What does this fold into?
Amino acid sequence: MDPCPFVRITVGNLALKIPVATRPARSVVHPSSSPCFCKIKLKNFPLQTAVVTCITPDANNQCPDGHPQTVAATFHLSKADVDRFVSRSIFSGKPHLKISIYTGRRGTTCGVNSDRLLGKVTVPLDLGGTESRTCVFHNGWITVGKATSKGSLAQFHLNVKAEPDPRFVFQFDGEPECSPQVFQIQGKIRQPVFTCKFSFRTAGDRNHRTRSLHSESSSSRRWLSSFGSDRERPGKERKGWSVTVHDLSGSPVAAASMVTPFVASPGSDRVSRSNPGAWLILRPGDGIWKPWGRLEAWRERGSSDGLGYRFELIPDTTGGGIVVSESTLSSSKGGKFVIDLGGGAASPAGSPRGSGDFGYGLWPYKGFVMCASVEGEGKCSKPGVEVSVQHVNCTEDAAAYVALAAAVDLSMDACRLFSQRLRKELSEDPDLIG
It folds into this structure.
């Protein structure tokens, strides 16, 4: 089945030139001391915020130095989104990307906003045909704001483009703990491609951090045990959950196994960031399960009170994992787990943090990788999964992302306050629920 068309709009290469006065003045911004940022808005999409680099006015009117490919914001459009924008443009003109540029720091100081609006930029977007070709809407400098006493204007540099970003789309037909089928979606067509099997590891299995696809491998068990905790933990805990993804022939093609129990921190009924639970995402190889990624999850404190998570790739060679996604999901509303290697985009959906070049070549692509929808606590969750086609070369590739999506969804339950009860499917012994 063919992938679904998507379009990725990127805003990048942001820079600002502001006239500098010979003497300090409250009405003039000095790039060396005044931070700048912008707010980027596309209709029906969440507002995004990005830092803007200030450069000296005598610099060449070229692309900003140092970071020629820096991405400040991204918007992901499905075919339905594109069609809606195109049909609307017939009657009301092209859709627009609106950027408001501010000087000063974000937020308030003593209840007073410390930023000042410098100017606004509007870029029209002609999205027709962007599902199949790259289109640059703007690349260069634009004058913004009001002229100074000497007639000089501030200049704002940006690059706005749209490019095809086709994806495979999958949908769970039920909650992961109910062992559902997984369908591939293409338009109105739903085709079953995987089945999920939820299970518990028994006490006798607890030291078996991996299984052979057909028989046990003691060497792989010893090696893989380093990713989990084998000791018994006192107090409340949720442990032993596992999801195995099978193809339609019944062969296992990926798995998610809870290798570190989700344990309430001392004197609390929540899983803390300092002692998170963890899943191992496994793929078959050479007749045994091999680790592909590790997902940690915990319950955030404070006003956010959400599900915190960190996902890292596990390289085939020795060495630590490479963090590619770290963020927080609302416990009440849910949200989207996202892996987007877009070069530091300020995405509200959860861009990776501190990922460097994302594995020094271990992952050869950048841009969007995958996202998975997660419902809030107490809501029926049937995760949807989107995976970029450039990251799927075989069935096992797609299955690994499906297993990861199941682990993220189940982490919402694993991190529920221990004062709350879980549904019966998540415990072998009803007396141990919650």
Notes: Residues 395-414 form the longest helix (20 residues). The mean pLDDT is 81. The CA atoms of residues 236 and 264 lie 6 Å apart.
